[in-house]
Design goal:
The chain is an alpha+beta fold and 363 residues long. The protein is built from 11 helices and 7 strands. It is elongated.
Length: 363
């Protein structure tokens, strides 16, 4: 029975507990003395740890993804919890409960699977239904898709995160489509459910979450397009134009080249998917960051390195969430106009006066 999870560690605690090694790095201090930085994790989060003495000997006792029992003292350094390890030993896997070490979704995975099946059943385009069923009726694909994390560090970093994120994007699709005439819902739902399907091969998630060799060399976007192409080729007479549009959504869902997108969105459906994927990812990432803070002393979180900012959390009683009212019927608008305020807007380059004379890579 575990006595301490990462989220429960407090300043000046003396610990003797088992953790999973997420990262292991040997570095050199300014005085030329080596030290060891270890990122330890359990299902509640992760924490940095240091070994200052006998570094070479200690480092030889374990590797990344091993389970370690550590004796350590906790302290807050530069606003973050840190452990200073005095002793450690490797623990055999059979002596631990794996469920204690990998974070998982708060949602019931079986219920999400049922939601996925029901969602596919709402499609009216038989070709897209066949494509989705070719993926999600495949036991090997579904066994991975239902438990894979959606990412290693940015958002939905837990077992079941990929399925949860994909369903959330699909829910956003159903919230947005009624507001705009002419958007192809079936195409967008397909994009929502398949945009990250390549992560079942990009990610390794048996122990600490990491990237596979295929993930590092090819990436989930290209893997996903390859998987879709393979399935399309198995469906006789699948319309080439429709296959092209599905592939384009996958290739462009990161929005910009600098965010790893091989193409930028050039259809309304691809543009909507890009923004909805980004919206759900960021909300989950920010909420996870706030949740890690535990009992905050003030209204500001610790610095978020990836988002490059602190976040303000209103903790007054007036700010507590209230039950929302059902949305009013809003008449659809005829055109999709540029919306300002998105960091990854594909229209940014067109706003500059100088951009008119530039030879922009519009394709």
């Amino acid at each position: 029975m575990r006595k301490n999870f990462v989220k429960d560690i407090k300043d000046r605690d003396q610990l003797k507990e088992v953790f999973l090694v997420k990262e292991k790095i040997t570095a050199m201090a300014k005085n030329g003395k080596p030290y060891l930085t270890i990122k330890l994790m359990d299902k509640s989060g992760d924490v940095d740890a240091k070994v200052w003495d006998n570094v070479d000997e200690v480092a030889g006792r374990f590797e990344k993804n091993d389970f370690l029992e550590v004796s350590a003292k906790a302290s807050v350094y530069l606003g973050k919890m840190q452990l200073v390890i005095s002793d450690l030993r490797k623990i055999p896997e059979e002596n631990v409960i794996l469920a204690d070490f990998l974070p998982e979704t708060d949602r019931d995975i079986k219920e999400m699977e049922e939601e996925l099946a029901a969602l596919i059943g709402t499609l009216t385009n038989s070709w897209l239904s066949k494509l989705l069923n070719s993926f999600f009726a495949d036991p090997e694909i579904m066994a991975l898709y239902r438990v894979a994390p959606a990412a290693k560090g940015m958002h939905h970093v837990y077992l079941g995160g990929l399925l949860e994120h994909s369903l959330a994007v699909a829910s956003l699709v159903d919230a947005v489509v009624p507001l705009y005439k002419g958007i192809n819902r079936d195409l967008l739902i397909t994009g929502a459910l398949l945009h990250d399907v390549g992560k079942v091969r990009e990610m390794k998630f048996f122990r600490a979450f990491d990237y596979s060799d295929e993930g590092k060399l090819i990436g989930h976007i290209t893997i996903g397009v390859e998987m879709i192409h393979e399935r399309v080729c198995q469906i006789p007479d699948f319309p080439p134009e429709l296959a092209m549009q599905v592939k384009h959504m996958i290739l462009s869902h990161h929005g910009q080249y600098e965010y790893g997108s091989p193409k930028r969105p050039k259809t309304i459906e691809a543009t909507v998917l890009n923004y909805l994927d980004d919206l759900d990812s960021k909300i989950n990432g920010i909420r996870t960051h706030i949740k890690k803070e535990g009992e905050m002393q003030g209204n500001w979180t610790a610095y978020h390195r990836l988002y490059d900012r602190y976040f303000y959390v209103d903790q007054t009683e007036e700010s507590l969430p209230v039950e929302s009212q059902p949305p009013q019927d809003i008449p659809p608008v005829e055109m999709v106009r540029e919306r300002k305020g998105f960091h990854n807007s594909p229209f940014d380059k067109l706003k500059s006066e100088h951009a008119r004379d530039e030879n922009l890579d519009l394709f």
